[in-house]
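Need residues for this backbone.
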């Protein structure tokens, strides 16, 4: 046990001392023809976070990004290769940046950080589950969007095998989080309550652009990633986007972050 702790301490010290690798690369699926809503939200959240930290990185799109990933709790994506280290999904990547003492939100005290991370967990869990639900549980969305996009980079019959496995894993995850038996009204209600919570948090600092003041934190990045993706993704069922559009402060937050870090001329669907 002592040797394991010493090894972990040595790794942490190495991470904090080494500079940010100039060759850091973020891996994700192809945006135009392949990436799905939950994956796009997660990838965009990580991109926003790294940009907010002013850390350079390249983006590499590849058809097998999910299978190259070392794993993850939900989408497995994105993953970054930073020097000798590889990390997948939002929270592990944020933890890596924090160990290098390059993270945003360093001015927050311990209580504020704990509060902020509660919101981060809420956003990731609610929005990712809702995105998985609409992508894989809704038959029309699955048949018209999810399956064609997910299978587009594979030849027949591998595309059907890939779609079957992907849907099976998504439904299993929904079952683990007790979303599998919900109907669309229950899903929308959960999303609306999460949006209400976020909008209330924004109202606590009415004269600042971010959730916790003048400077962004990881909550701004992950909220932007999910909200922006939902608002800009056209699906046969637009219930998620229509729900988010009701919360004007959240829409304006997306517009502000997009203007500041991405400049994509944000227009909600």
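Answer:
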């Amino acid at each position: 046990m002592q040797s394991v702790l010493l090894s972990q301490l040595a790794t942490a010290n190495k991470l904090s001392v080494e500079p940010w690798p100039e060759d850091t690369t973020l891996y994700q699926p192809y945006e135009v023809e392949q990436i799905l809503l939950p994956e796009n939200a997660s990838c965009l959240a990580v991109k926003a976070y790294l940009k907010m930290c002013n850390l350079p990185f390249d983006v590499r799109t590849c058809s097998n990004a999910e299978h190259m990933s070392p794993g993850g709790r939900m989408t497995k994506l994105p993953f970054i290769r930073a020097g000798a280290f590889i990390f997948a999904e939002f929270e592990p990547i944020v933890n890596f940046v924090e160990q290098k003492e390059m993270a945003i939100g360093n001015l927050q005290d311990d209580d504020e950080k704990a509060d902020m991370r509660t919101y981060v967990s809420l956003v990731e869990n609610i929005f990712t589950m809702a995105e998985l639900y609409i992508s894989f549980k809704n038959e029309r969305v699955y048949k018209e969007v999810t399956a064609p996009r997910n299978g587009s980079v594979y030849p027949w019959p591998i595309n059907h095998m890939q779609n079957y496995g992907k849907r099976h894993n998504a439904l299993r995850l929904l079952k683990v989080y007790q979303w599998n038996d919900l109907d669309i009204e229950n899903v929308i209600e959960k999303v609306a309550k999460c949006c209400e919570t976020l909008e209330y948090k924004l109202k606590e600092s009415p004269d600042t652009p971010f959730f916790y003041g003048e400077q962004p934190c990881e909550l701004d990045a992950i909220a932007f990633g999910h909200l922006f993706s939902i608002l800009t993704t056209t699906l046969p069922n637009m219930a998620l986007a229509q729900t988010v559009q009701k919360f004007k402060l959240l829409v304006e937050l997306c517009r502000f972050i997009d203007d500041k870090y991405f400049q994509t001329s944000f227009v909600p669907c």
